[in-house]
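From the thread on structure requests for the teaching lab: each student submitted one protein with a one-line request. Submission from student K.M.:

"Model Radical SAM protein from Anoxynatronum sibiricum, tokens only."
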Amino acid sequence: MNIHKATMLMRMAVDREAIKGMYKTYGILKEDQAFNMMKYVKMLASMQKGEKIMKHEGKYIISTFMPPFPSEPFYTNMRAVKEPRGIFTQQIYGKRSAPISSYLSITHKCPNNCIYCSAKTGQAERELTTEQWIRVIKDLQDMKTSIIGLTGGEPLVREDIFEIVKAVDPRSTAMLFTSGFNLTPERARELKKNGLFSIGISLDSHDREVHNQNRRDEQAFDMALTALQNARQAGLYVMAQTVALKANLEKDQLFKLFKLAGDHGAHEVKLLEPILSGKLLNEEKLDQILYGTADRKKLIDIQHKANQVKALPKISTFAYTESEAKFGCGAGTQHAYISANGDLYPCDFVPMSFGNVTENSIKVLWQEMNAVMGIPKIGCFAQRINREVYRKAEGNLPLDKEQSTEICLNNRSEKFPQYYRELQ
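Reply posted by the TA:
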């Protein structure tokens, strides 16, 4: 264990609010006969394994794939099960009443035209109204969804963005993902005032030309750096989000990115890998773009090394979080995505529609999707099935519910990721 993590754990051990939070979490789970103090210690250890813990506004960010601790959204997540009794058992077998996180693509509009965008294929022109999004948010919160992320497209192009953010009440953590478009100091403060906790700002490279080329916008790099600074000054928890291309998986290059992001206000750098979706479905030389096992291992090693450097931001990667060693892929089990026109997908990168929230309750649609998805998967679900999805859709995405159900049933996982296995 590195010095930074040891220091943060010691701070948590003497933090009155954190201690109260640990007691409250224990109180939620203790009614389950399968739960005991040893399981509790193991659960807490598994949550923080491989993570650099950050503190922001009195709350500890163990992983941004979970709500901050202690907080009402953290307890919301603990209680997000189908039956009021046996909460611990339901949690460790993935029997949830709602996803941990749900990302809402509140618009398909975007000023950028990124080379690996997943949101450009099969998008309908229709978008949900303000009132419809507010109703969806209420329904998700009533289901006990603990993280609600607003994405796109570019969510900051919507004039009602502050109203939509405000609709997320304290039961859930509100997040927003942006290129940094028009994130002035005033707008950042207004987002914070209306309840936004964290913001993810795209930063593809430490190199201005690379970032601008990816975005096809000569102002994109400077806009992103300014947005990071404005968000930090407004009091938001700031993440720089990077799609790390296979050709750029070098420690020295990534460390330059981490330092640049940290110097401009990022608390965390979140590394995503190119996923077989959107525009990449039409690419031919995918072996030069998509990761292999060795590439993911290399990125995870860089993540763990960077997280031992106190001066750098927290580094997180999907390669680690979705691996067998951690939580696995949560598409349709821990996570859900709603497109700009209201279709429910298992995740942002899996263009399968399980129905539309304007025609049926999100609670019903989630339960139907969750039932066919099964348990959390080891490795990215999109990478596994999107070629088949694209072939069956014949280019007309998203795939319909009947064919989506068939693919999901044929690709159910039989083995839980390690986080679950250790607690079972």
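TA comment: The chain has a mean pLDDT of 92. The longest strand covers residues 237-243.
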